[in-house]
Fold this sequence. Notes:
By secondary structure, the chain is an alpha/beta fold. The chain has 2 domains: 7-224, Spore Coat Polysaccharide Biosynthesis Protein SpsA, Chain A (Alpha-Beta Complex); 226-338, Rossmann fold (3-Layer(aba) Sandwich), CATH 3.40.50. Helices cover 36% and strands 21% of the residues. Strand 11 (288-289) and strand 12 form a beta hairpin.
Amino acid sequence: MADAPKISVVMPARNAAGTLPVALESIRCQTIADWELLAVDDGSKDETGLILESAARADARIHVLSQAALGVVEALQRGCAAARGEVIARMDADDRMAPERLRRQLQFLECHPQIGVVSCRVRHGGDQTTQAGYEAYVAWTNSLLTPADIALRRFVESPVVHPSVMFRRELVHRHGGYASGDFPEDYELWLRWMDAGVPFGKVDAELLIWNDPPARLSRTELRYRTGAFYRTKCVYLARWIKRQVEPSREIWLWGAGRITRRRFLTLNSAGVAISGFIDVDVKKLGCLRDGRPVVAPCHLPSREQAFILAAVSTRGARDLIGAELNGRGRTEGSDYLLVA
């Protein structure tokens, strides 16, 4: 058997014939040659299989794994199980790598042995107007560059773009790999690994064009719906609170609206009780919601008494709440956490 490569690229593909040639070419054009590609054809009915087989005949580093249409999680599990490299790099069949992506991420991991997962900044390949939500998410995740910021903001959203990551293969054996369930498989994996103490880093360079086609799984699969994200988030958020927040401090939720309260119900079942709510809507102030009081920001419980979860998801609200709490002498991570 040939020597194991340094990098294993794992790329699931289903009915990706229209974008696959560009993705494959971006891998072949990497400035580091020590890689293998595990391309998992997940039951494609178009020319995907033929394109992959042709690529494999032309380049011995490309290996095609074919399966019935079992889904992306099973494809990722199969690709990671077949990987021989010291590190695994993710790639999607509708995205494009910059030529230096693999080299720069590998160098980052070699220079930072304490880091387990490295991402990079990405460029949104969709329309900035019609896909404004993805554009805003890209801007947000691109702003998180340090391990501390990535860890601190992980309960807002996934702090790294899935196809932009490279991670040490040993993490899969130590902490488990992609899991199947009613949750987004990438976000659950990042939360589980960070919960286990794995530091994440990010190369401060735009090394991936992340496209946003109409058939993207996050738009079509039920496990990516908002409720599934929040249930997954709350499980690991509850674990973080139990470790990091003194038992004597109450937990208050900034956001008393019905949708916000419903999204964080999982905290209760995970053993974290919400003592009260903070809101700016004068109609809610002085009332009870779910049997708990609603107060204005000017009547916050004392810093020693309460830890605050900023849970309002309205665009722009997160920054305003953070600024308000900072102005009142509260420190992010010690006195409050942004969670939506």
